[in-house]
Write a structure and sequence with these properties.
Shape: rod-shaped
Distance between the termini: 25 Å
Structural class: mainly alpha
Largest sheet: none
Order of helices and strands: HHHH
Number of domains: 1
Radius of gyration: 31 Å
Length: 193
């Protein structure tokens, strides 16, 4: 994220150099200058998508941790209810028949019922945690693919600039177009899954 001002400066520098060369009247140089502008716009767009995917990956993984923490709390509460149920079962087993024993059995049953509900909630929270973790992995994978795509686009911009600096050699421009296409294909591939 902190590289954006530097990248903007680099794009501006390439565009200014291309403009200067294009003013010489060479039509090919003007075409190369336009391709640099297009590549710069595409690179900026893909770079923004890369940044968004990185943020989404971090956010989803943080949410996964929060859900897992809630699940852990629920499991701890489940264990406490289970222990209380067992204590009431022991108390009922040692109590003589009568209202005290019935009270212990009722409390044991209530804790057992509460435990079942808490267990369902804990499993639900673990499922939500796993889903957010998977979502985070998807965003992280996209981020990595987009990083490669934007790198290809930046190299394409540099290659087009070389075509201008060398006085209109065509092979660097062709290479820049291929690199640009590779960057666009990479960006599309990031979202094709």
């Amino acid at each position: 994220m902190s590289e954006m001002p530097t990248e903007d400066y680099e794009h501006t520098e390439h565009a200014m150099h291309a403009k200067h060369e294009a003013e010489g009247g060479n039509r090919f140089i003007s075409t190369v200058a336009m391709s640099i502008a297009v590549l710069a716009v595409v690179a900026a767009t893909v770079g923004s998508l890369e940044t968004l995917e990185d943020g989404d990956a971090i956010s989803a993984k943080n949410e996964a941790v929060l859900f897992q923490n809630k699940a852990t709390d629920s499991w701890n509460f489940y264990e406490a209810k289970s222990m209380k149920k067992n204590m009431y079962d022991i108390a009922a087993a040692t109590a003589s028949d009568g209202p005290v024993k019935d009270d212990f059995l009722a409390k044991a049953k209530k804790n057992e019922d509460d435990s079942a509900d808490i267990q369902k909630e804990a499993k639900k929270l673990e499922g939500e945690s796993a889903a957010k973790l998977a979502e985070g992995e998807t965003h992280e994978t996209r981020h990595h693919i987009l990083t490669g795509a934007v790198t290809l686009l930046h190299i394409g911009i540099a290659m087009a600039t070389i075509a201008i600096v060398t006085g209109g050699k065509r092979w660097p421009w062709y290479a820049s177009i291929l690199l640009g296409v590779g960057g666009v294909v990479g960006a599309v591939f990031a979202y094709a899954k």
